Amino acid sequence: MSGIGPVEPVDSAEANESYDVIGTDAPRPTDRLAHRWRTLSPRARRTTLAAGVIAASTLGILLVPPAGSPDNAVPPDPMPWPANVTGWRYVGLAESLNSHTTRGFFRFAVTVDSGPPVTLTVTSAAFAGLTAHATPQRYFTVHAGITRRVTVEISVSDCSGLPLKADLPFLDVTLRNTRAIQHHSFIFDGTYARDLSQLLHAACDGPTARPGPLPTGSAGSQNAD
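The structure corresponding to this sequence follows.
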């Protein structure tokens, strides 16, 4: 026979025919639920469905936190990296350079834009043969929104290989806040480059110029306002 005829209701005469069983399966809980569902009247089915929709809606309302609750609150901004919020600006020489000096004292204004306080340590200055550190304290802390003036002592320890003209000189600084510790180079030009070049000429210009010993003391200038 070809084709598929109309589907007969389960209570037709064909319900008494026998069929080959090709496999068995253990009874499942869903089988009992399906049987109960089939035995319900149409009205009982509509009532059950309506009750299920109401229950699901109520559960959804209870699970969604109200607006303004901690779960819906906007997450706070991440704590900034110290190098991203710290700025250095050259102010000028803390004292005049003489013609035979091997060290100079340079003033900077340091700011932190936002976030927790940043503790800074000057570690080196631009070229091999120079040493640098903040004075009188080698490390200092700057709070957000406050400008701190800092004196950096730079000394010439070795003239060999030092350029007498400092193009785009920089300071190497370690920065620390509650998020991270970073090593960063702050690059300067203009007045700072000219003042540093003046120190290099004073210490290393001429055949008899000799650098002084590594600095062991500190200047009398202050490192904070």
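DSSP finds four helices and eight strands in the chain.
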